[in-house]
């Protein structure tokens, strides 16, 4: 059986998830109605920088940290704020949002263009 290309998986996920514009994400984060969740690898954060106030949750641990029944559960995910996931370029985040929706997480979206677009447009970042 042939492997479904990741491009197809991302395209399909994007039809079933909410994608917020960079500006909407920045406004919601400033208003305190959204919690940004950076799912990039820690090496990416060190190399490229980070968005102030964004929670880091590596993609490989995300489902485990969200699930209250998991021994790895993180209370940070119990919030009334909209969870807005982002990665470098809005590919991994699309798959991650879809996976969390499939788990039952409802107040969730991804950020259009990811961290790369955030940085390119000159939005504020922190560096080590």
Automatic annotation (TrEMBL):
Keyword tags: Transferase
Superkingdom of origin organism? Bacteria
GO terms, molecular function: transferase activity
Q: Domain Rhodanese, which positions? A: 30-127
UniProt xrefs under PANTHER family: FAD-DEPENDENT OXIDOREDUCTASE (PTHR43031), PYRIDINE NUCLEOTIDE-DISULPHIDE OXIDOREDUCTASE (PTHR43031:SF1)
The name on file for this protein is Rhodanese-related sulfurtransferase
What does the organism's lineage look like at the top?
Bacteria, Pseudomonadati, Pseudomonadota, Alphaproteobacteria, Rhodobacterales
């Amino acid at each position: 059986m042939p492997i479904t290309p990741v491009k197809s998986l991302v395209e399909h996920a994007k039809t079933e998830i909410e994608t917020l514009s960079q500006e909407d994400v920045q406004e919601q984060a400033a208003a305190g109605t959204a919690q940004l969740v950076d799912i990039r690898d820690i090496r990416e954060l060190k190399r490229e920088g980070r968005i102030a106030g964004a929670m880091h949750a590596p993609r490989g641990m995300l489902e485990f940290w969200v699930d209250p029944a998991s021994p790895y559960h993180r209370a940070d995910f119990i919030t009334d704020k909209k969870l807005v996931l982002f990665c470098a370029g809005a590919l991994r985040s699309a798959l991650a949002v879809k996976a969390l929706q499939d788990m039952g997480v409802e107040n969730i979206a991804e950020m259009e263009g990811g961290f790369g677009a955030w940085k390119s447009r000159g939005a504020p970042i922190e560096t080590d």
